Every structure is written in C-alpha cells, then in structure tokens.
C-alpha cells in the first residue's frame, strides 16, 4: 500500500475464483457452497471446502455482508469519554460479542449531541446489526433517535422509554447488602455520606439504605443523608460533620469508594480505629481506591463487566429474534475487606 | 428485525435505483457519479447528487468497500484490557480518526496471544485499512504477525522492529522536566522512588534523572534509585527508608503519582511539611491521584491523548502514502501544583 488508489488484493491472498478452479466448480457454485445457500450434492460442497482449506481462502466480509444483509458488526457507543464506569461495561460487551465473529465499532460521543449524531449516521451507513449505549451515570437517558429499526440496548444508563431494552445495576440490592452487612456485624448507629442529590445513584442508594434501617426500626445516625460530592475531600469533611452531630456513630455507609477513603482517612487522623470503633463501607469496588485505603475497604461491586456482558447477550437476542422490551437488573456483590 | 433472515432495507431507505430514476440516468451512471469514477458531463453528476439530496439516499458502505477496496475502518488493538494508560491513547486515536469517516474496530486482547490471533484474523477478514496497537507498558513489544501488508502503528508500547512505525512518550524529557523544576526551586538533595526495575518506564526515568543531576554536579540524595512497586504503600515505605538514609533529603521525584501520594502521606504523618520542608513530584498526572493527594501533586503529564492522536495521523499517512518507518516522540508537560 503506497498510495490512496484502490488496494489490490495481496498476491498471497486466494480469490474465490481460485477456490472454484481447484474444486472444479463454477464461481457461483463455490459462493453458494460457502454461504450454505443453494442446493448441491454434499460431495460438491465438501470439494469446495477442501479447496478453501488448501488455499487458505478467507472470504471478503464486505461481499458476505452484501449477501447476508448482516454486517456482523455492533456499535458500542459511550457517552462519557470511556471513563471508569463505561470501561468495564465496554469490556464485558466486547468480550461477549468478540467471542463469536461479531466486531465492535467504538464510538465515543463525549456527551456531545453533534458527535452522537455523526456517529449514529456512520453506524447506520455501516449497517450495524445493533447498538449498545453506555454512560457513566445511572440516571435514565433519552433514547437514541433516527436508528429505527436497529436493535439497541442501553447499559448502566437506562433508556427513559419503557419500549426499549435496558440493563442496569441493582442499586436497591447494593444498598441492602451494605446496610445488612453492617447490621450483621453489630452496628446500629449508621451514617450515610454520598454524592450529589441530583444523581440517581446517590438518591437511590440513600433511599434504599433508609428502607433497610427502618425494617430494623432504626434510622440514620444523624437523622439525614449527607449529600455532597463523589470525592475524598467531601468524605473527610463529612466525617467531621457526622461526628459533631452524632459522636456515637459506629459505622459509615458511603456512596462511593472515594468518599469512603476520605472518611477512613479522617477517622484515622482523629485517632479513631477502623473498624475497631467505627466501620466503613464504600461502593464501586474501584480497586485503586478500595485497596489503597487504610484499611482496605469493604465495598459493593456493581459487576459492571457483567452488565456489559448481559447487554451484549440481550442485543444478540434482539438481533436474532426481535427485541423484547424491558429492564434487566444485574445483582451487586458485597466485597468484605478490613474496614468492617 | 424479528428473525435472523436477511434484513430487508427499511421502507424509508432510498435505493440507488430510486436515485437513478429521479435523476433520469441508469443505475450504473448513478453509481459512477457517486463514486467519482467514470466520465460524464458535470450536469449529469449534479443531477445525481441533487437526487441523492432529495431522497436522503445513503450509500451502502459494504458495496462501496467492494468498489474502492478501502473499508474506511481501522483496528484499535489494546493489549491490557483498556486500562488507565491505554484509554486516553484510544480516545486520542478515536478522536482523530472519527472526525473523518473512519470507524474504529475495538479489539481487546488482554495480553492473550490466542485472543490476539483471533482479533487479527478478524481485522484481516474485514479488510481494515490499518491497525493501531497500544498497551499499558512503555517496554518495546514484538510486532504483530500475519498482517502484512496492513499498515500498523504502535502507540505508547513501541515495536521492537525498527522497520515499524511507533509513537512513544519522551521519558527522557519527562524526567528532565521534573528534576530541573526541583533544581529551579532550590532543591539539591533529591531522592528517586519508582516502580519495578524490570519496567522500562522505571529504568529510563531513573537514568535520565541521574543524568540531569550529574550535569549540575549532583547525585541522588541516597546515592541510589529506590525501585519497588507502582503503589502508594511502596511510596510510604520508601519515604521512611529514604529519610533513615538521608534525613536531609529536600525533595522526592517519584516514578508515578501513586508512589508520590504515598510519599506525601508518609511525610505528613511524620509531621513534615510538603512543600515547606520537602517537595514531591509525581509522574502521569492521573487526576484521581494527583488531585486527591494532600497537597495536590506537581507531576509530569505524558499527554497520552496526543500519543493516540499522532498515532492516528501517522497511520492515515501510512495508508495514503505508504509507511515511513521510525519512532515518533511526544513531549511531556510539567503540571505544577502545591506539592512543590
């Protein structure tokens, strides 16, 4: 390849005509044998397959796509620049799709609607068989426009349209696992420190944590949820505020691992023992944070890779058998480390 | 789409025959007008383009690929599961390629040679115009096999074959920026704590740091490089070891931000003021680490997104005009924060 002119096939690449010649059949027959279409004697098909093997022939997928109407390609669209949350979802999906012969076209929209439209047009032009959309937030998002009838699955960030297929994390189950673990280890004065109230992840986990406490006739240690930022600095500040209000707090359930790490640092620097005096639970199982924390954090793992994998499987089902609308929930896991 | 049978075009999707009919030309002429091939009167071509516009016709890219021999698709292969280092490289490449009409096929090999071969066969079958390979390490890697003559560019992890095209970070320049910044702010007893000696990134940055010190007739504060792990825990342990050997150390240059954060924590917990008594410089500008550190870290930014962007541009050049072997180096930036 030394110029922009049409590329000729490499000399070493066998053509369908070579296969046909070796098998002693017409090019049309060779093509039908390879596509599994048309009627022919089994011996004829076998002669073609033997010739394919002998010549190391590899069919041109673009020609195959024209024939089958399928591109064996799926668009993976991420709206947040491939961050910490979308990456494992993408990997889970890529793993499930790539195990077969399906390739993944990566589209990063960076939350920009013009980029999203550009990528969507491109995916439509390339006749993708389906699209997976993911983002960093668990808040519902409006469905993609102009892609009918391409099957689409929304992963992590569900679609606002109930006629779509979405795969989401079980925030209710995650909050329940965290609070029940603290209750089971004898904690009863539990504070909740989390991210911004306008994030569904913060609101949902807080609401479900309170539900679990109420079932044990308990409430939050400080009588309220401490909404703030998803940062260590907020965790440190909030720990101080909680202990001013409720000095007998014996556990913190935090909305993410960064907040939990900040809480653990603030407690250590006040001379409080974690978990001896106060237990700390995070959320996300982000290894960099959870393992570097002193002590390492007990946390909730959303299994984002599994969310990606299930999204891929639901997409393959939709491509093969038509879409079945609905929201699929992937369970969280409790990962116990030294902070509880 | 409700079954696996060949998908019929959506009723709303105009066909080339519709374009030809509206323009009053044959399908062959319409095709030539769209592909820019064949001789015809400018008015004829314009009539076809007007019909395309009027009908909202979008050409089938698979048919186009058969015609032009180009798939307008590039493989992006990452060998480390899309980690913290490969992600910005992928994004930079995707941005540079996606701005045009080139799509990106994502392949994640997870360091597994069988997965790599599977993905490569798939990329060859799909007639990709080129391949970008990236990984998490700066150590040279063996070139991909069996892809001739597909142009390939190695990003971040260079190819061991000098006949290949590689785009790498300027580790020498990065180490120089860090040490010269410390010297410029009056530090002369500088310790170096870094990752494992068998990583090129650790060895190269250490060697270049020593070179810069020697040019000022200085050596490392402890007389040696402290090789260990890329972790906060190692940074904390190493800070203690350095201060035992050389209590008058006035600065730490660290091989990554996690080590630097560990050093900063250990110094604070010993009651030492950063940067008042001891300055700390990290490497990577990994925002989660550098900003959460107390104080926030001065660090070296490798500009991984730029490495991806340059790799994409070199690949486009190679596709259009033939590959020009060589190693391209992307400069680092010094990001000054409160730790110096």
From TrEMBL, chains A, B:
UniProt entry keywords in alphabetical sequence: DNA-binding, Transcription, Transcription regulation
Start and end residues of each HTH lacI-type domain: 14-68
Keyword Ligase: no
Keyword RNA-binding included in the entry's annotation: no
Any single Pfam family the record assigns to this protein: Peripla_BP_3
Molecular function per GO: DNA-binding transcription factor activity; transcription cis-regulatory region binding
Alphabetized CDD domains for the sequence: HTH_LacI, PBP1_sucrose_transcription_regulator
InterPro entries in the cross-refs: HTH_LacI (IPR000843), LacI/GalR-like_sensor (IPR046335), Lambda_DNA-bd_dom_sf (IPR010982), Peripla_BP_I (IPR028082)
Gene3D superfamilies assigned to the protein according to its UniProt record, in alphabetical order: 3.40.50.2300, lambda repressor-like DNA-binding domains
PANTHER family named among the record's database cross-references: HTH-TYPE TRANSCRIPTIONAL REGULATOR GALS, LACI-RELATED TRANSCRIPTIONAL REPRESSOR
Name listed for the protein in its UniProt record: Catabolite control protein A
Species: Streptomyces jeddahensis
């Amino acid at each position: 390849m030394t110029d922009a002119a049409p590329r000729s096939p490499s000399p070493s690449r066998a053509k369908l005509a070579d296969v046909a010649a070796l098998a002693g059949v017409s090019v049309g027959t060779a093509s039908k044998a390879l596509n599994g279409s048309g009627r022919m004697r089994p011996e004829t098909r076998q002669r073609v397959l033997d010739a394919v093997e002998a010549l190391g022939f590899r069919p041109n997928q673009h020609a195959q796509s024209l024939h089958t109407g399928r591109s064996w390609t799926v668009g993976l669209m991420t709206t947040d620049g491939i961050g910490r949350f979308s990456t494992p979802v993408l990997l889970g999906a890529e793993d499930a799709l790539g195990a077969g012969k399906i390739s993944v076209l990566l589209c990063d929209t960076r939350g920009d609607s013009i980029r999203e439209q550009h990528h969507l047009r491109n995916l439509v032009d390339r006749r993708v068989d389906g699209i997976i959309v993911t983002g960093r937030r668990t808040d519902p998002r409006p469905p993609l426009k102009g892609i009918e009838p391409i099957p689409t699955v929304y992963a992590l960030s569900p679609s606002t349209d109930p006629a779509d297929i979405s795969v989401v994390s079980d925030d209710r189950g995650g909050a329940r696992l965290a609070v029940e673990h603290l209750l089971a280890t004898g904690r009863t004065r539990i504070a909740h420190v989390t991210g911004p109230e306008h994030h569904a992840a913060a609101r949902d986990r807080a609401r479900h944590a309170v539900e679990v406490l109420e079932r044990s006739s308990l409430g939050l240690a400080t009588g309220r949820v401490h909404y703030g930022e998803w940062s260590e600095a907020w965790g440190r500040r909030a720990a101080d505020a909680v202990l001013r209000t409720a000095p007998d707090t014996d556990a913190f359930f935090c909305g993410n691992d960064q907040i939990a790490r900040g809480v653990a640092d603030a407690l250590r620097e006040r001379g409080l023992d974690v978990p001896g005096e106060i237990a700390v639970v995070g959320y996300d199982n982000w290894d960099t944070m959870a393992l570097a924390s002193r002590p390492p954090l007990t946390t909730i793992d959303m299994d984002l890779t599994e969310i990606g994998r299930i999204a891929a499987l639901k997409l393959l089902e939709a491509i093969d058998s038509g879409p079945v609308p609905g929201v699929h929930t992937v369970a969280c896991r409790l990962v116990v480390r030294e902070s509880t």
